[in-house]
Amino acid sequence: MKSGNGIQRAFNYSDLFLNSFFSIGSGYLHNSTEHLIIFIYSGELVILESGQEISVKSGESVFIRKDMPVKLYKKNDQEEMFQGIIMGFSRPFLSECYKNVRKKQILSYGGKLECGIVRLPKTPYIQSLHVSMIPYFQWGVKPSGKILELKLREGIYCLLLLDNRFFTCLFDFMNPWGLSLISIPCHKN
């Protein structure tokens, strides 16, 4: 839980992963089996996908659809090390959430999300979710299981409030054919 030159700090709480890296330009291939929301607290995250570069800076967040082959680079800014919060939505968790979502209301708006990577706009509910997780990271305190579940549920509802087309993406395992939807890479700069 120490931080400083060359020291990595990471906490993995079930589907919520909080981390910081001091090493400049550290990169890794990422092809998650879970949908992700990534919040950048400090520093910058560079996402390389199909030859395109997407920069996510401090205070910004991004959604990455599951099974998107991307390369992530974490960069420090001038004064602070990289710190980010990653929320992963597992299929068992999404299956449980699916039972409680008002499907008729959401499906009535229809549509399919065509993006594999979506830059999330700054809205009160996205910002509130992001800010509410920071104290746990700063203090190195593990949130209780109930708090984590509430935060993950809040993440689902934030995405659905942003755009109801996230419904078909998040719950793609419930489509009539029983197959996952094809990821079509696109992003918003």
Strand composition percent = 25-35%
The helix-strand sequence is EEEEEEEEEHHEHHH
- Rounded radius of gyration (Å): 16 Å
Reading side by side through the largest sheet, how are the strands ordered?
A: 1-2-9-4-7-10
Number of helices: 5
| Mean pLDDT over the full residue set | 75
Give the CA-CA distance, first to last residue. 34 Å
How would a textbook summarize the main sheet? Answer: 6 strands, antiparallel
**Alpha-beta content class:** alpha+beta
**What are the low-pLDDT stretches, counting only 5+ consecutive residues below 50?**
1-11, 18-24, 177-189
- What is the global morphology? globular
Summarize the amount of helix as a percent range: 25-40%
Question: Quick one: how many beta strands?
Answer: 10
